[in-house]
Design brief:
This protein is mainly beta and 164 residues long. It has one helix at 24-43; strands spanning 49-57, 64-68, 72-83, 91-97, 100-109, 114-118, 132-140, 149-158. The chain folds into two domains: 1-43, no CATH class; 49-158, Jelly Rolls, CATH 2.60.120.340. It is 12% helix and 41% strand.
Length: 164
């Protein structure tokens, strides 16, 4: 018998103790379903993305966004400014890690409400070789902001190791 998945959902036979005999099909059918599911998952293993998110605000200027494991590529960073930052000078956002604050995003203006797609991911020239704790840094030029909020979403994918 062929697997039901992905064309449908398999329904196992209900057996009654002392009444029904266990047949090979009772074990073989679920095995076929498992193989079908694993085949689909393996085909999408490199496609399935992951994400992490954090809010930055005028009074919460350095949030940890999350940890990117090794062997990953950041595919997109989106910053949704939901409340404009209002420092009397410039309002800038950097995204990176402790040793390199602007590794991924450098001096993104966040003084207007809207969506910012960050495509120039600066330091992403290949898969990560180590685990990175990614953080955001908000800087108001005069440190007098009284408003401002933005949601940061970082999307990334696990990738195969680079060939030697």
């Amino acid at each position: 018998m062929a697997a039901t998945f992905p064309g449908g959902i398999w329904g196992p036979a209900t057996l009654v103790d002392g009444v029904d005999e266990i047949l090979a099909a009772h074990q073989n059918d679920p095995n076929l379903e498992i193989v079908a599911i694993e085949t689909v998952l393996q085909a999408y293993a490199g496609v399935v993305g992951r994400y992490m998110q954090a809010w930055v605000a005028h009074d919460s200027t350095n949030p940890t966004i999350g940890v990117i494991p090794s062997s990953c590529m950041i595919t997109r960073i989106t910053v949704y400014v939901t409340e404009a930052f209002d420092d009397s000078g410039t309002d800038k956002l950097e995204i990176g890690f402790e040793a390199n604050h602007d590794a991924f995003v450098d001096d993104l203006p966040i003084d207007e409400v809207g969506q910012n797609e960050c495509h120039d991911l600066r330091a992403m020239t290949g898969p990560t070789v180590a685990e990175y704790t990614v953080k955001a840094w908000y800087t108001g030029e005069n440190a007098d902001a009284t408003a401002g909020k933005a949601l940061i979403i970082i999307e990334y994918k696990m990738v195969d190791a680079e060939p030697l």
